[in-house]
Amino acid sequence: MKKYIISTIALLSAFFVNAQEFKDLASLAPSYGYEMQKDYFLYSTNEEHAPADNIYSKFAEWQNKWVNPYKIAIKDLPDSLVVDCSDYYHPVDGDVTSQYGPRWGRFHHGIDLRLNIGDPVHAAFGGKVRVIDYDRYGYGYFIVIRHDNGLETLYGHLSKIQVVPNQTVLAGDVIGLGGNTGRSTGPHLHFEFRYLGNSINPTNIVDFNCHVPYNDTYLVCKAKSFNELKNYTAPKYHIVRSGETLSSIARKYHTTVDKLCRLNNLKKNSVLRVKQKLRYS
Q1: Which of 74, 164, 196, 237 fits a 20 to 30 Å CA distance from 50?
Q2: CA–CA separation, 274 vs 6, rounded Å?
Q3: Which range is least confidently modeled, 3-7, 45-49, 271-275?
Q4: Superfamily for 237-279?
């Protein structure tokens, strides 16, 4: 029997139990397909076949903790996969507020969709819930679902989770409620497509104006589907030391003063502070 770890805070949210009323976890667990052991971990009692196990089991066992337990470089992915998109259900009706790709000095692995707190969030495809958790400095309350078609989807910044790990869901099922949890500047759904842990631009698959896939199938192709992710170079920074100038820093990194000024919103005569963080790439 495999061990699955679920944080108490996520479990409370999933079970809709008020903390003051949450007195006997052991009595609740069996009704959701779990056994409670004396070490307070939850163990799945559901031994059904995991979705797309023929693809994923080669790289990692089914588990309920990590968003990306596979750690597979793009170059090592299978060459291609034909994904069935025919049962796609758009998770929320809101407009796109932020696109996939580089953003604020990091890579944004999904697309953000406008919603109101409490709006229902729907599963995009049929499959099985793999992860529910809370990420204070990132996704907030979030869900990861492994789908029968070989993709995984992630739904972030939820206000409430309405599924449990290992639960089978259908396309269109309500899995949670929209929110503003975690690292978020306003209510929205952060929505990701992943294949063996590597994110795919959702707009490659879905027309977000019409809320439907472009085609009934999508070809995940190692050579083309991950170009934005492959080509991304994370920003690099220099910490200013005593006596350094824009010119000396530019020489150090084989760049120009003009580029340093542009990247850091500086002027050529700006005075640098010791320990100031400057982006140079």
Answers
A1: 74
A2: 44
A3: 3-7
A4: LysM domain (3.10.350.10)
Q: What is the mean pLDDT of residues 16-33?
A: 41
Query: Which alpha helices (H) appear in 24-126, and where do they start and end?
Result: 25-28, 53-56
DSSP string, 15-62: HT--GGG---HHHHGGGGTEEE-TT--EEE---PPPTTHHHHTTT---
The three-class DSSP label of residue 253 is: coil
CB neighbours of residue 214 within 10 Å: 13
Return the domain boundaries, the chain. 3-44, 53-231, 237-279
CB 18 within 8 A of CB 142: no
Q: Which SS3 state, helix, strand or coil, does residue 1 take?
A: coil
Q: What is the per-residue pLDDT across 220-247, written as a single tens digit (0 to 9) for each?
A: 999 999 999 988 877 788 999 999 999 9
Instruction: With residue 174 as reference, give the H or E element that holds it.
Output: strand 174-177
Cβ(144)–Cβ(131) below 8 Å: yes
How many CB atoms neighbour CB 198 within 10 A?
A: 20
What is the pLDDT, as a whole number, of residue 49?
Answer: 83
Do 19 and 9 form a contact (C-beta atoms < 8 A)? no
Residue 24 three-state SS: coil
